[in-house]
Amino acid sequence: MATIAHTTTDRLSAERKFYSRYALALTALVFLGFAPSFYLHNLFSYPRPNPTLTATVIAHGTLLTLWMLAFVAQTQLVAAGRRDLHIRLGQASFAMALAILPLMYLVSVWEVARNNAPPFTDPLNWSVVPLATIPVYAIMLWIGWSRRRQAPVHKRAMLGAALMLMHPAIGRLPLGPPLLAVFALTGTLSVATFVPLLLWDRRTLGRVHPVSLLGISLAGLSLAVQLAFLATGAWAPIARHLPGVGS
Q1: Would you say 193 and 212 are in contact if contact means Cβ atoms under 8 Å apart?
Q2: Model pTM score
Q3: Domain-located, residue 174
């Protein structure tokens, strides 16, 4: 019996370390990706001249940063056994996430007027990139919140939501010229950030958890939609009729 208890304790300790380190790595990646265009905006002009940061963009970036920091804090609190604070912070971070969703949309459609797009496309078609991310982020958040009392589901869903922010972060790293092929590469790398979770599932559960599978599937689908519209230019006629475009 003591051996079983010891094994269970070791497993929980390893799991907490895994999620904690995962969250820290993702937060570092977000900082590296957004440092030139947001955090250290005035010091860089890569990969293209940085447009002026509007109040909406600043609010959006600030809230997402706070949400990522709260996500890291959540994993640390669980690792420290402070589930009481974890629950309280979880409520606050979910409120932040709800506020982020409309900001994500507004920034996406208002970017058209700012003419903020890479040279391989135009602002109208480029708006599909952030817009295609919003539904997946929202789905993973909702699963995480609605199943918050089911730890295996909750933590994978919240991690999946954080992983959906990796494409814009990785896409801003200097991995190549601003070409559609490079965008496809960075998108593939962002989907691959789910791989450590899938490997962890296989190691600890003997299978991939359904929520992990849902997350990587939705991320892949979102990327496929983005690439299809960017390659064909078919998103522009749709984007012209979206509320707020060009405001």
Answers
A1: no
A2: 0.88
A3: yes
